Amino acid sequence: xxxxxxxxxxFIFVGLAIGVLPIALGRIVAPSRPDNEKNxxxxxxxxxxxxxxxKFDVRYYLVAILFILFDLExxxxxxxxxxxxDIGMFGYLSMMLFLGILVVGFIYxxxxxxxxxx
Amino acid sequence: xxxxxxIYTALPEFFVLCxxxxxxxxxxxxxxxxxxxxYALTQLTLLGAAVMTAVAHSNAVGYAFSGLxxxxxxxxxxxxMIYLSTSVVLVYxxxxxxxxxxxxxxxxxxxxxxxxxMMVMVSGQNFLTLYMGLxxxxxxxxxxxxxxxxxxxxxxAAMKYFVLGAxxxxxxxxxxxxLYGMTGSLDLTQVSAAIMGGxxxxxxxxxxxxxxxxxxxxxxxxxxxxxxxxxxxxxxxTAVTLFIGSVTKLAAFAFVMRLLIQGLQILAHDWQxxxxxxxxxxxxxxxxxxxxxxxxxxxxxxxxxxxxxxxLFGFFSGTMNGFVSSMFxxxxxxxxxxxxFGIILLLSREGFEAxxxxxLRGLNVRSPWYAFIMLLLMFSMAGVPPTVGFYxxxxxxxxxxxxxxxxxxxxxxxxxxxxxxxxxxxxKLMYFDEPLDAAPIQPPLDMALLLSANGLAVLAFGLLPxxxxxxxxxxxxxxxx
Lengths: 118, 481
What we know:
The complex is a heterodimer of chains A (118) and B (481).
Chain A: H1 6-29, H2 36-39, H3 58-82, H4 84-111
Helix pairs in contact in A: 3-4
Chain B: H1 3-9, H2 11-28, H3 36-55, E1 62-64, E2 69-71, H4 73-99, H5 105-123, H6 127-145, H7 152-183, H8 188-196, H9 202-220, H10 228-235, H11 238-245, H12 247-263, H13 268-291, H14 296-316, H15 320-347, H16 363-366, H17 368-382, H18 388-402, H19 406-432, H20 445-463, H21 466-477
Antiparallel strand pairs in B: 1-2
């Protein structure tokens, strides 16, 4: 049984090699003469404006979370739509139930003002 | 396939789901002065679900949704207990959350959804149903712990709970996937039949089993997977701690019964050893670490760990008697925990958390009646006769003795004596020390009555345990073959 997994093992090794080899080769073969300019962060040719670790507005997280929620719904809808003919009324109603629950969540987030930016 | 009969079998679940969504929407249109409507609706939901479950109660086993969902006596009994204890939690915490700005629709909706998750867990007959119920419960609990988001300690506790909980869920799923890979089914009865048929690769089965047991142990809070428990109990708002500490343990009990007993009993020989080690370690670490605590919530958290150890005694004895006494133990435990945290909520007031041991000093002077209630609860937790805690410990010990674990029982009894120290210390603080603050204790009437009933029930079930024992025995005997 385990032999069937051999291609996957092979794949892991090839994948690792493709990732590791160029970096290792670059480290070994390339000449290394660092100076101050080369070590500084690169930002489109300008001097770096500010530290990359800055605070984000919390609203971005909210939007991102809501996006994930409603994006996942689509991920459920696609396979459902493909087999809709075969699963019949039960499948149809199950999805409608799911969408109904989702709509309740949608009403909640709308009324709470999560969709308003200002 | 008959959809209507499926829905009828799972009617309480559908009802709770619909009501939770309704409450979520209704609450949006209420202002702060009308919030009590949300509370009333939540209590009504619990009452309605209880009526539905009670009406449908029978000793027959029914399946729904192609065997994903089971409806048996154990599910009925545990669900009724879940409704009752959730209702008690709401009554105890009402004043507390109102004073801390948490008396909002989200609190009640999250509690209802968590309860729905527990109901699904109790009735799960398939790895996926069980897991789905568990996740619904856990996700609600994470957000409940973080509900008071200005509180740094609560946020930290929620973060820890979430990260460790996700890890445990991952382990549980990994174990389930190994078992699925070996047996080719997610259904508990078919998994059981496939293992019974033999010819399966035993080491791989055991690998799956180890991960499942680790996941279960985490959710129960058994050593060595107990690290999250004191921090979460301590950090969470006391109302939420009350919920996590009491009601969810009923679902955890059902979860273990379904997975280990219904699904994997054939592997009992293998998981017994694991449970014995966890039980012994839990009893040692729970009892010894509790002695060093000065915070009441943390102390009760360690006391939970040791109670889980005793609970496991009933499981690893592997007999019907053992399972029945485990169920009795968990019910007794829920009763005691509700009361214990109820007293903390009772003594807390605006801007003051009565969570240090010193806050109990001289309670007898301030209110002899509640000091007496707390005395009963502490005696029960320590296992002093004639309280329910004594009888629960006695029953699990007896089951373990019948299974031939004499050494372990002697050890557990010795550790229970060690544990009595920190419970009795509270009694000493209440009765023999001077009070540090003299604020009057004025709970609302419903809480005063319920808390008194709770304390007296601990005594009553200790004096007359047959009734409760009978309920547990019926539930188990009609559900587990």
